[in-house]
Amino acid sequence: MKKAATNTNRYILLPALSFSSDAKTNPKVKSFLETLDENKNKATLKLSSRTTRVAKSSSIALKVVDSIQEDGPKLVELNDDELADFRFSYPGLRIIPERFYRRALFLREEIKQAIRKSLVQVTSQLTVTDEAGSGLAGIYVVAFTDFENRAGASGTTNKSGKLTLKLDKASIQRIYVYPDHTYWGYFKKNFTLAASLSIKLPKIDPAYKDVLRYFYDTAKLKKIKATLRVAVIDTGVGPHKDLVLAGGANVIQGEDPADYGDNGEGHGTHVAGIIGADGAIKGVAAGVKLYSYRVFPVGKDASNFDIMKAIDQAVKDKCDLINMSLGEEGLDEGIISSIKNAYAAGTVCFAANGNEDRSPVSFPASYSLTVAVSAMGRKETFPANTVQTGIVHAPYGKDKANFIADFSNVGPETDLTAPGVGIISTYPNDRYAIMDGTSMACPAAVGAAARILSDHPAILKMKRNQERADEMQKVLSARIQSMGFGTNFEGKGMLSVQP
Question: 234 catalytic, yes or no?
Fold first, then answer.
C-alpha cells in the first residue's frame, strides 16, 4: 500500500519573544538559528526529533530557503506531517506560515460574465485616440451592460487604437477606458452605444493641479533640508529623471539584490514620486533621501518574509520612515515582529488602508504601531469624464467638495487620511501616470510626515530607539487637521504642511 502524499510548505521561524535571539535569554535557540544560517545552502538538513514514544530518535527534514539575520528569522521548507513534531522538538521558536500581500492599488473594473456568442446583438467599433486623433494601442476598455453582475465585454486596443465590442444590447450602463500611463482615462454612464464610437484621451500635464497638489502645493514647497531617509517597500523604483535613489535592495529570494529598480509594473515608481520626485513633477518631500526595496516579483504578490526582510534592511540603512502600500486580511505575526523591531529602532512605518470598498482596514495598516492611511479625493481636481468621476462618494467633509474615495477601506484603526484619487506621479522610463488608491494616499502622508519632521533636526539626531519613534509621532500629531469625515474614515485627519 502506497503512503499518502504529503505537502511541503514554507514557514518562517522566529524566536519566541523577539525578532532575533539572545544568548542570555535562550542560548539554545540562538545556536540553532545560527546553525540553520550556516547550512542554508544545503539542499536538506536532517534534524533530530526526540518527541517519539520510542527511545530511538527520528529525524525531520528541513530546507533553509532564506535568512534575515544569523540568529534571526529563517524561511524554511517543512513537511506538514512533521510540523507538530518539529514544534515540540524545537520549543522557543514561532512557526509562521508564509503568506502573500497585494499592492494597495485601486483595481480596474473587470468583466465577470462575458456575453455568450448566442446572445450577441450589438457590434460596435471603438477607437481610442489622443487629442490629435492618433490611435492609441494597448488601452484596456471594459463596457458593462449589467454593472451589478459585471456582465459585458472588454478588450485591449490594437496598434491602430481600435477594439470591437460585442454585446447583448446597446444600452451601456458603464464604460471604462484605462491607459497605463501618459493619458487620463475615460468613464461614462448610461448611454446607447452606436455602431462606432471614438474616445479621445487627454494627455497628462505634469503641471495639472490634481488633489495632491491642491492640498500640498508641491511646486511652491522648498526642498527639505534634513538628510531624512524614506523607504519604499514595493515593486521597485525607476528609472525616472525626476527620481534619485540613495540606495535600496531587491530582497526577493533568487533575484539580484542590486536590482531594485521597478519590475515594470510602475506601482513603486508612482509611490516614490509622490514622496520625493524633483523635476517636472515634485513630490511632497522633494529633497528626501529615497530608498527602494523591491518585494514584488513580476506579476506576483509579495511574500511576508520578503516584506520582513525589506523592513529589516530599511532599519539597517537608517531609514526614518517606511512606506508600505500593500495589504491583506488578518494579522501576521512575522510582519508584526518586524514593525515592532523597526519602531524599537526609531523608525515609523506607514501603511495603506486597502481598497476593498469600505471593508475593514487591511493588515499591516490595522496593526497599532503602524500609521494607517485612508484615501480621499476632491471634486474638480480631475478632468470631466475621467475614471475618477466614478469614485466620488459620501461621506463629504467640512468642505463638501472633499470626499472619502468609494474604494477606501475604513475603520477605527485609521490614523490619517490623504489624497489618493487621480494622482499624477512618476512612471518608469521618464513617463507619468494617473493612479488611484490608498497606495497613493499612504506616500502622500509619508511625504508630509517627512517634510514636518525635517523641521525637527533634534529629534532626528536622537538615539535610534523607541523614544525617538515616540517623539516623531508626537510632532506629527500636532500637525493634523480634521477634514470632517469622522474618525472611522479619516482617523485624526490630514497632515498639514507649510510652504
Answer: yes
